[in-house]
């Protein structure tokens, strides 16, 4: 009989971002009060699961999301650079609203190739690093479950790749809400299914900055 292993990808909770900028890999962006409540809600939701390893992106918002999970699960958090947000030339800028980058003609040169994309880390590179992290976590948690805290775009892109769908997409159509779980189930080394859930869905409000 093959062993069943589940690797959960958890998007971080809501971030305090009053300026509405794309914060990407910028330091200093922490969970809001509501974001901390999201993290605590997810921790309660997974408390009874057979999670034996807990990894996180090094970004503050991801580590703060992982913290209550570590407490509930009795696990140390392993930081892994492969789970980090995708790089983006628009970090620190508003991407929506009347004064967003889409109204700035100087930004147009970054939009020449949406398939790569030309404004940030290539989708293919994101897939490679995220898949490597998932595979290593699966091996470490073989026969049990692993939980990896990451960010919207990396989670969504590796899911698209796993489902053999095209990688270029409309960010508004990503199924990866704040504090959501995208769960990869493996039978042995074979991916058998991908699930999605929103344990803190009732706490999601407004329209967060895409990719944040």
TrEMBL record:
Its EC number is 3.1.3.-. Signal peptide: none annotated. It holds the Pfam family His_Phos_1. InterPro entries: His_Pase_superF_clade-1, His_PPase_superfam, PGM_Phosphatase. One of its GO terms (molecular function) is hydrolase activity. Keywords: Hydrolase. This is Histidine phosphatase family protein. It is an enzyme of class 3 (hydrolase). It comes from the Bacteria. Gene3D superfamilies: Phosphoglycerate mutase-like. The keyword Hydrolase applies.
